[in-house]
TrEMBL record:
The gene is PEMT. It is a multi-pass membrane protein. GO terms for biological process: methylation; phosphatidylcholine biosynthetic process. This is Phosphatidylethanolamine N-methyltransferase. It is found in: Endoplasmic reticulum membrane; Mitochondrion membrane. S-adenosyl-L-methionine binds at residues 129-131, 211-212. Belongs to the class VI-like SAM-binding methyltransferase superfamily. PEMT/PEM2 methyltransferase family.
C-alpha cells in the first residue's frame, strides 16, 4: 500500500487537518489581556528603569575602550590600579541605582495574581540564591581588577580562570545578576519585573558580544608580544 493511500484510508493520521483547521478565534486571550492591562510601558518609572539597565553596560564598555585606547583614566588617577578601582566604584554605584530603579518600577505597577503563589515565590527565592552564588563566586575568582575590566587598563591575568563558576557557565557575573532580577520579580509577583529582567538579559547579551572578542584580542596581542621576546 502506498503512503498516499494509507493517509487516504486513515484521515485521523493528519492530526487536526494541519494548523489550517485551527480556529484561532477560540483561543483564550484573557491571560495576555490581563498582563497587558497590568503593564504601562509609558509609565515614567518603568522608562527610567529601562534607561538605567541599557545605560550601564553601554557606559562601562565605552569608558573602558576609551581607557584602553588613550590611557586617559590611568593618567588622571596616576596609575592603572587606582583608575580601575575608581571605575569599579562608579560601576557599583550605577548598578545600585539600576536595582533601585527596577524595584521602584515594580512597586509602581500592580502584582499579577497568576504569579502570586508559593511555587513562584520559592522558585524566585531559588533563582536569587543561585544567582548570588554565581555573582559572589565569580568575583572571588576574578578579584576586583578581573571583574571590573582591568584588562582594558593593562592589568592582565596570568591565565584564564577555568574553575567554578566558569566551568559551569560562561559570564557567570552577568547571568547570575540576571537570575537575581528574575527571582526578585517572581517573589514579588511582578510582571513588570519579568519584562525588565528580559531587558537586563538582552543588554548583557549585547555587552558580551562586544566584550568577548575585544578581550580575546587584548590577550592575543600579549601572547604575540611574549613570543617575540
Amino acid at each position: 500500500m502506498s503512503a498516499e493511500s494509507l493517509f487516504d484510508a486513515n484521515p485521523a493520521l493528519d492530526c487536526c487537518g494541519g494548523l489550517n483547521n485551527v480556529d484561532y478565534s477560540q483561543m483564550d486571550m484573557s491571560v495576555l489581556e490581563e498582563l497587558w492591562r497590568l503593564i504601562d510601558l509609558t509609565e515614567p518609572r518603568f522608562c527610567v528603569a529601562v534607561i538605567a539597565i541599557i545605560f550601564n553596560p553601554f557606559f562601562w564598555n565605552v569608558v573602558a575602550r576609551w581607557e584602553h585606547r588613550t590611557r586617559g583614566l590611568t593618567r588622571l588617577f596616576g596609575g592603572p590600579y587606582v583608575a580601575c578601582y575608581a571605575l569599579a566604584v562608579l560601576i557599583l554605584l550605577l548598578n545600585v541605582y539600576r536595582s533601585h530603579s527596577i524595584t521602584v518600577a515594580m512597586k509602581a505597577h500592580p502584582r499579577w495574581e497568576l504569579l502570586e503563589n508559593a511555587h513562584m515565590f520559592y522558585t524566585g527565592a531559588a533563582l536569587m540564591a543561585l544567582g548570588s552564588v554565581f555573582v559572589i563566586s565569580s568575583f572571588m575568582a576574578l578579584g576586583v581588577t578581573g571583574t571590573f575590566l582591568g584588562d582594558y587598563f593593562g592589568i592582565l591575568m596570568d591565565q584564564k580562570v577555568t574553575g567554578f563558576p566558569f566551568n559551569v557557565i560562561e559570564n557567570p557575573m552577568y547571568w547570575g545578576s540576571t537570575a537575581n532580577y528574575l527571582g526578585l520579580a517572581l517573589m514579588n509577583a511582578s510582571p513588570v519585573g519579568v519584562i525588565l529582567t528580559a531587558v537586563v538579559y538582552l543588554s548583557y547579551k549585547v555587552a558580551v558580544a562586544y566584550e568577548g572578542p575585544f578581550t580575546e584580542e587584548i590577550y592575543r596581542r600579549r601572547s604575540q608580544r611574549c613570543k617575540h621576546k
